[in-house]
């Protein structure tokens, strides 16, 4: 009940005129960011973050999180109309969304996608509303060892649950940690890994890294593909919307299943990308006509969108409650909280009640605003995609450069951004995942601090990570998740070999 | 934009394996550099963890992962990593971008941005000259209005802005 009244107070904060204004601006910017190639959720938030330093933190986070919702919605537009996934998590949406557009059912597909997104996001927000305060109050009992164990759990689940090559995930995580270690060491006050460079004393700002890795590299990849946009037309009118909505209750099982998968994958950092594919896979498996998937089945649009949004939203739960972001964009938002002087984590719910509940309330409203805005403005955003790339690309690159510069007014940072652009380009082509790098970069200092504090308390003995039931469980769970992936791979390989042997014997 | 290669055409370009191997070697070098720096400053225990303690441990894990990637990279399928044509496309974006960043210090961001747009759009060459010139003037002006006037974020300025009194 206490939480309920806090939430109502949050709605009062979020519903003030200027916060609603920021919400609308944020959603519109977010859709643009999601539609344009080369920009994306993390990058868009990273570029705008320095501009919000002067704002009231609650308004700033509402603006930035609305960009996040908008970007999530925007991805669906390009997937369905142009067969170009604006974000990795909308890849699965193209499988059935684009065929629907080809059959002239673009409006239906878009309505389904937006509504599914909304339902997914809503289930994520409801989860946050009820579970985050519980997790936070539980986490108030954590000491440094427990916190390090939670960090370990996050990183191990990345490696164990990841779809990419595990060695590359691990390498990517380590690079993030090492980049975070460059510069002034907060405990001893000594310089590390600066190799005599004064510019490196500040360390690597994660925003510069994000803009390079996600912005510049994305443009380079887009250019490489030659870039011919061939879009389908879409006009959404109220009749189609209402008709599509009337048909949705039939798919309640798909929606529910995808929402649950999404929430699970969001809280454990499996991420929206994995969630969208899993949602799609499950919908196909449980469908009565699995063959119709990939040819324009509306369930093939509903499932991945619901799952992706449920995951994208739920990724904010561990960020708010524990200070551990579940996605790259959540990591950027977390960086913002730190800049505004707010300590993300369990204490936030005690010390910054108004802020947290204002944010949670804005999630409900922002997603509702997002749904209305996208439904009303699809033709406009589809038109953005028709602007020739030779106009769009330089503007995006200039905005990226400005974003990198404004973080600490340093031209060196723009050069760094270029460097990370190249790194991102090569890494993406070689299937090194980038999200673990960003997460480790943001969390590096905090993970190191809790690690060192835990060891200080125990006089250097690693036994502190098995000192009580809680920390032992967390570490055990982390190791389990770490080993889960490789073990399953091994079993799969053995089975395949067994089948091959059987087939040979049968011949 | 017109040069989209058909999938069945044999494309010439950089193969994937050497790129994988080079990247893995670079990562190994990076790992060794981290270890060298950490042990140089002290990565042990001196009444508490020294400041190279954590990076050194991450460095070892990183080195192990990179060595593993190196071993794996010899087994990668050797298909085309990037065709020379694609590489050319990327260079056509990257070269003007480097020029842009290099010009920010002497000329200020706005003028550099204008020149960047001119060079970039002429290289890509899909628009009429007046559209290019108009974009090169309007985009920096719009940036100036948004960042300098609305958000009050000072961006690097050069002689032209000084001449105009900013």
Automatic annotation (TrEMBL), chain A:
The alphabetical list of record keywords is: Membrane, Transmembrane, Transmembrane helix
Any idea where the DUF112 domain is?
22-439
Record bears the keyword Transmembrane: yes
One Pfam family matching this protein: TctA
Transmembrane feature ranges: 20-39, 60-82, 118-140, 147-163, 169-191, 203-223, 259-283, 319-343, 355-382, 389-408, 414-443, 464-484
- Which positions carry the signal peptide feature in this UniProt record? none
Highest taxon of the lineage: Bacteria
Tell me which PANTHER family the record gives: BLR4373 PROTEIN, TRICARBOXYLIC TRANSPORT PROTEIN
Q: Could you tell me what this protein is called? A: Tricarboxylate transporter
Automatic annotation (TrEMBL), chain B:
Q: Which keywords, in A-to-Z order, does the entry hold? A: Membrane, Transmembrane, Transmembrane helix
Q: Which InterPro entries match?
A: DUF1468
Transmembrane annotation, as ranges: 21-39, 59-76, 97-123, 129-147
Superkingdom of the source species: Bacteria
What are the DUF1468 domain coordinates in residue numbering? 24-156
Q: Which Pfam families match?
A: TctB
This chain belongs to the protein called Small permease of tripartite tricarboxylate transporter
Source organism per UniProt: Bosea vaviloviae
């Amino acid at each position: 009940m206490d939480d309920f009244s806090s939430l109502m107070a949050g709605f009062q904060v979020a519903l003030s005129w200027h916060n609603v204004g920021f919400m609308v601006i944020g959603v519109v910017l977010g859709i643009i960011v999601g539609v344009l190639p080369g920009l994306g959720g993390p990058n868009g938030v990273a570029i705008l973050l320095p501009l919000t330093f002067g704002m009231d933190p609650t308004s700033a986070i509402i603006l930035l999180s609305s960009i996040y919702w908008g970007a999530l919605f925007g991805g669906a537009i390009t997937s369905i109309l142009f067969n170009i996934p604006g974000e990795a998590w909308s890849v699965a949406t193209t499988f059935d969304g684009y065929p629907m557009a080809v059959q002239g059912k673009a409006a239906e597909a878009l309505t389904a996608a937006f509504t599914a997104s909304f339902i997914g996001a809503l289930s994520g927000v409801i989860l946050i509303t009820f579970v985050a305060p519980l997790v936070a109050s539980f986490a108030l009992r954590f000491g440094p060892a427990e916190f390090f164990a939670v960090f370990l759990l996050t990183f191990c689940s990345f490696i164990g649950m990841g779809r990419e090559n595990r060695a590359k995930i691990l390498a990517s995580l380590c690079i993030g940690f090492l980049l975070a270690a460059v510069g002034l060491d907060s405990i001893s006050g000594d310089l590390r890994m600066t190799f005599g460079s004064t510019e490196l004393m500040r360390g690597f700002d994660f925003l510069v890294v994000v803009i390079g890795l996600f912005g510049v590299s994305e443009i380079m990849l887009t250019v490489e593909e030659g870039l011919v946009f061939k879009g389908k037309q879409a006009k959404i009118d109220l009749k189609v919307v209402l008709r599509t909505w009337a048909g949705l209750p039939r798919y309640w099982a798909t929606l529910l299943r995808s929402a649950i998968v999404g929430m699970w994958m969001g809280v454990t950092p499996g991420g929206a990308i994995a969630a969208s594919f899993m949602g799609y896979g499950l919908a196909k498996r449980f469908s009565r006509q699995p063959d119709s998937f990939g040819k324009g089945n509306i369930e093939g649009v509903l499932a991945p969108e619901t799952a992706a949004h449920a995951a994208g939203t739920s990724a904010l739960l561990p960020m708010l409650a524990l200070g551990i972001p579940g996605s790259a964009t959540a990591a950027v938002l977390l960086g913002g909280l730190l800049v505004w002087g707010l300590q993300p984590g369990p204490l936030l719910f005690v010390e910054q009640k108004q802020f947290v509940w204002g944010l949670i309330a804005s999630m409900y409203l922002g997603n509702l605003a997002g749904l209305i805005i996208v439904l009303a403005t699809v033709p406009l955003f589809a038109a953005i995609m028709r602007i020739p790339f030779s106009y769009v690309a330089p503007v995006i690159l200039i905005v990226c450069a400005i974003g990198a510069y404004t973080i600490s007014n340093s031209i060196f940072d723009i050069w760094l951004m270029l460097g990370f652009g190249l790194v991102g380009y090569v890494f993406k082509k070689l299937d090194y995942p980038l999200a673990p790098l960003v997460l480790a970069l943001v969390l590096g200092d905090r993970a190191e601090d809790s690690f060192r504090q835990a060891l200080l308390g125990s006089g250097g003995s690693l036994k502190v990570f098995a000192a009580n039931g809680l920390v032992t469980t967390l570490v055990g769970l982390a190791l389990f998740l770490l080993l889960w992936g490789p073990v399953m791979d091994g079993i799969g390989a053995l089975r395949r070999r067994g089948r091959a042997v059987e087939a040979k014997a049968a011949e | 934009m017109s040069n989209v290669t058909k999938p069945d055409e044999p494309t010439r370009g950089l193969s994937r394996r050497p790129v994988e191997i080079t990247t893995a070697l670079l990562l190994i070098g990076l790992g060794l550099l981290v270890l060298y720096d950490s042990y140089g400053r002290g990565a042990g225990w001196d009444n508490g963890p020294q400041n190279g303690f954590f990076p050194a441990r991450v460095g070892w894990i990183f080195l192990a992962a990179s060595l593993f990637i190196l071993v794996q990279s010899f087994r990668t399928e050797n298909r085309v990593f990037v065709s020379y044509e694609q590489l050319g496309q990327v260079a056509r974006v990257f070269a003007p971008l480097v020029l842009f960043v290099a010009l920010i210090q002497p000329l200020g961001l706005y003028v550099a941005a204008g020149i960047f747009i001119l060079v970039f759009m002429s290289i890509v060459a899909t628009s009429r000259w007046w559209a290019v010139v108009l974009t090169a003037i309007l985009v920096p002006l719009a940036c100036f209005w948004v960042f300098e006037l609305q958000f009050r974020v000072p961006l690097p300025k050069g002689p032209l802005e000084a001449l105009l009194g900013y």
